[in-house]
Amino acid sequence: MTDDKPGAPPVHALLADGTTVCIRPVVAGDHEQLQGLYEEMAPENLRLRFFGASRRSAEMAADRACAAPHPGYRALLAERQGQVIGLAEYDTGGAGTEAEISIAVADGLHHRGVGTLLVEHLVSAACAEGITAFTADALSENREVLRLFADLGLRTARRFEGPEVRCTIELTEDDGYLSAVEARGRAADVASLEPLLRPHAVAVVGAGRKAGSVGRAILHQLHAGGFVRRLFAVNPAAGAILGVPCYPSIAALPVTPDLAVLAVPAAKVPETAEECGKAGVRALLVVTAGLDAGQARSLTAACRTHGMRLVGPNCLGVVNTDPALRLDATFAAGHPRPGTAGVAVQSGGVGIALLDGMSRLGIGVSTFASLGDKFDVSGNDMLQWWESDGRTDLALLHLESFGNPRAFSRTARRVTRRMPVLTVDAGRTDAGRRAAASHTAAAATRTMTRGALFTQAGITATRSVGELLETAALLHAQPLPAGSRVAIVTNAGGAGVLAADACAEAGLALPTPTPELVDDLLAVLPDGAAVGNPVDATAAVTEEQLASAVERIMRHGGVDAVLVALVPTAVAAATGDDLVRAVTRAPARRTKPVAVIRLEQALPVELLPAEGGTVPSYAEPQAAARALAHAVQRAAWLARPNGTVPALDGADTARAHAVVETYLEAHPDGGWLDPRTCAELLGCYGIPQSPWAWAETEDDAVLAADRLRGADGRVVMKGYWPGLLHKSAEHAVHLDLRGDSQIRAAFRDLETRFAGLLTGVVLQPLADRGTELFAGVVQDEVFGPLVLFGLGGTATEVLADHAARLAPLTDHDVHDLITAPRCAPLLFGANGARPVDLEGLEQLLLRLSRMASDLPQVAEADFNPVLATPGGVSVLDARVRLLPRRPQDPYLRRLR
Fold first, then answer.
1. Which of 454, 741, 228 is nearest to 462 (CA)?
2. Is the predicted pLDDT of residue 429 greater than 80, yes or no?
3. Are 432 and 426 spatial neighbours (Cβ–Cβ below 8 Å)?
């Protein structure tokens, strides 16, 4: 939800045609412009808005919007280059959860998405305030506003009352609504990138007359690459550079360029960007590095004020290999090969490596963007472009930071179902994260958080550029496997053993051939062949024999993929080329992937020409196995339907918000909740807790123990004081207490040892035996809440047997969380034991996820231990820390 109260910073977002507007709260100084907004409307539009014509209508509407703030009222306006072009308001009348909404859009700007964008922002703000429905009265002939409400993606009811229509809009931000918002955002985003990636005219500002400047290199790339549209250079000291006409300024150009490339000193970037904006340029590519904070703010402000999309600064450039365009605005050494892979990177060096690699493989590049410091255009933008461009079928990303990971995740989940999306997981170590933060001026994220994002979004995450290229080759050239069962065929036993080891290490299965397959293979292979897995066809195998063996294995139902490991030999039966040709026969007819391993191969990976396609060939068995394992994971992800966030009974979000607000009013800086407040918050979400009681005196402890004692009469006493985190480490726990005397002795011990600290004790019945687990959440500043689960107890930090997923958890995410840790067999009944209450465990994780998603103030939560038994699941010890954070809607349409 957006913080759009008076004084809040403005939010910039894209209209349907890709132009930029500013969405901000109305302030008193807007009165004149708002009155003008209405006064300039045609009489017919005024009648539709106010149900009649009055000279006072415009003034009264402006008075209302600019009045002093009052509870239940919100007014937002849309502004473009300082001019108000739209207004949207809601008012609850000071009470209730239903608000009346009204919208006004300037004449001449209808059908551009102004009203829809304003309403989306109002919906987000209203949901944050607990408003559950909007109502609106409209004339039945006002088709435009009725269509706006109908197309929002929210459930809308209409009731006709004479010439008027009463609309009621339920404010449920479910997946249907988010998908509708996404679709509108995608269309706007793609439209905004047209001037950047399909410009009709390009100007390079800062191209020098002498060789060696970055600007001149980019101009050369554009000119030599055959950019088919208009190209200009901007340099006040030259008439032409490299045969390209040169002009003294952007304003002096004969036409306004869609795209301006800025290769000027950092100090000149802000003023040059402002000149471009005033001239009507719609996109900037800033290759300049080293902008200080003030220059960065000025550059961003110029882009937002004038509605320009921005790539960079500190970047390599952009490429679109479309033959109808041939745009190469980079300073790379060569031109990438046209093809079907979209590439987006933050590091220019990685970008050059990927461009070279994809060109060498023959896959080629559709579009390329070096995002640099990523002030604006991001990986999310590029994913949406590739989804819509009609040319891209493979997406490669190298991102060192994320601006809005949850929006990125939703986009990636959608795009990944249409094409493979691969990334290099950069910044996995502390040293790597420091380098990433220094290089991109953005904080890097933890490995576990990034891993959760990639896994949930279906992104194929590799550990190096080399591994990314190896995997891209397989995914581009071969069908996906149906499973992980691999057959290895080789003409040298040693190569087969290396391949088998690599497959096992990559998590692939090597099934034993069935008797039928053994007989089938022995019938076509030379004498001496060993038909196991690997299949050793011997050095005497011929091209025809090898081809026949591969095809018979392909037809076998117990195999999902085939790796063929070949080495050159002196045997005259077949040359190395003959054996390779045996594998590359008729791949178009194959429905299972096949790959070659050639230990003598000079390059790490190649794509071999084949009948109707290509076959990947690897120099190392590990590379082939890794690529195949990634393909298996992608196939499994695609085979699984989209998960859903289950509805939860008994969650009282309103009461939870009240608990959090009450605590933060008393503790403005936040802190760890005391046991009673913590239990109250968990109770709002129905999170099961072991019975407990609070006591501040010895006598109270005895009375509490009497109430809590179970059949065996044993209880546990835990000391508490503000700031206490690890009770066991502080020896602030007494176990297995029986009788009043032991209760009193334990209390006196804690009171003596922690004098001046102890504020009370928590008593609980001694828990039954079961599996001790850990569940928790960390609110990441960038990624949002991350839910962790795994083995608990005192050894949880030492063993680190945890898995993680980003909230909100779907049903699939919960299943993955429970099955991922190494301790998972204990939960499902290892060694004949009964399984724990798996449904109860899923509910606990879902409720923890819901709490973290509802309450961004929950900085972290620790449930350790969580006791899981066949009879149920309960939290034995819980800690929750709150911080004074304002909620922010991650799916609200806005620019970075």
1. 454
2. no
3. yes
Give the number of other CB atoms < 10 A from CB of residue 687. 26
Place of tokens 């997406």: 395
Reported as type and span, the H/E element at residue 594 is strand 594-598
Q: Which amino acid is at 718?
A: K
Angle made by CA atoms 123, 128, 130, in degrees to the nearest 5: 95
Q: What is the mean pLDDT of residues 698-712?
A: 86
User: Would you state the pLDDT for residue 795?
Assistant: 63
Q: Which alpha helices (H) appear in 283-341, and where do they start and end?
A: 293-306
What's the distance, CA 484 to chain centroid? 27
DSSP bridge partners of 139? 164
Q: Dump pLDDT digits (tens) for 472-492.
A: 999 999 999 999 999 999 999
List CB contacts of 861: < 8 A, sequence separation 6 or more: 776, 777, 848, 851, 852, 878, 879, 880, 881
Q: What distances in angstroms separate CA 48 from CA 116, 135, 837, one per listed residue?
A: 17, 17, 60
- Take residue 360 and report the two structure tokens written for it: 């060498």
Handedness of CA 65, 69, 74, 79 (dihedral sign): positive
Tokens of 710: 């179970």
CA within 13 Å, CB half, 282? 20
Reply yes or no on whether the pLDDT at 3 is more than 60.
Answer: no
Strands of the sheet with 283-286, listed across from one edge: 240-241, 244-247, 230-234, 201-205, 259-262, 283-286, 309-311
pLDDT tens-digit map of 594-631? 999 999 999 999 999 998 899 999 999 999 999 999 99
Determine the average pLDDT of the residues in 739-747: 94
Cα 161 off chain centre by:
46
Nearest CA to 249 among 258, 215, 238? Answer: 238
List, in sequence order, every residue forming a beta bridge with 858; answer none if it has no partner.
Answer: 882
Tokens of 51: 């149900």
Terminal-to-terminal C-alpha distance of the chain: 15
Q: E strands of 251-292, at which residues? A: 259-262, 283-286
Residue 508 banded pLDDT, cuts 50, 70, 90: very high
Task: For the sheet with 11-14, list strands across it.
Answer: 11-14, 20-25, 73-80, 83-91, 98-105, 133-139, 164-170, 156-161
Cβ proximity of 821 and 739 under 8 Å: no
Q: Are strands 594-598 and 613-618 parallel, antiparallel or unpaired?
A: parallel
| Single-letter amino acid code for the residue at 541 | V
**Nearest alpha carbon to residue 186 among 479, 431, 399, 414:** 414
Kindly state the percentage of the chain with pLDDT values over 90.
77
How confident is residue 574, by pLDDT bands cut at 50, 70 and 90?
Answer: low
Contact 786, 448 (CB under 8 A): yes
Closest listed residue to residue 214, CA positions, set 374, 330, 348: 330
Q: Which amino acid type is present at position 231?
A: L
Q: Which among 667, 641, 793 is positioned nearest to 727, based on CA atoms? A: 793
Give the integer Cα–Cα distance in Å for 729 and 715: 20
Q: Quick check: 34 and 23 in contact, CB under 8 A?
A: no
Q: Average of pLDDT values for 131-150? A: 93
Is the pLDDT at 437 greater than 50, yes or no?
no
CA distance to 84, 703, 704, 767, per residue, from 709 (Å): 68, 10, 9, 11
Helices 543-555 and 515-522, interaxial angle, to 10°?
Answer: 160
| 445-472 per-position pLDDT tens digit | 467 888 899 999 999 999 999 999 999 9
**Residue 801 binned pLDDT confidence (cut-offs 50, 70, 90):** confident
For residue 849, give the 3-state DSSP assignment: helix
Q: Where are the beta strands (DSSP E) in 190-301?
A: 201-205, 230-234, 240-241, 244-247, 259-262, 283-286
**How far apart are the C-alpha atoms of 482 and 138, rounded to whole Å?**
55
| Sheet containing 760-765, strands listed edge to edge, beginning at the edge strand earlier in sequence | 693-695, 760-765, 714-720, 733-738
Q: Which residue has the tokens 């149906």?
A: 482
Average pLDDT, the chain: 91
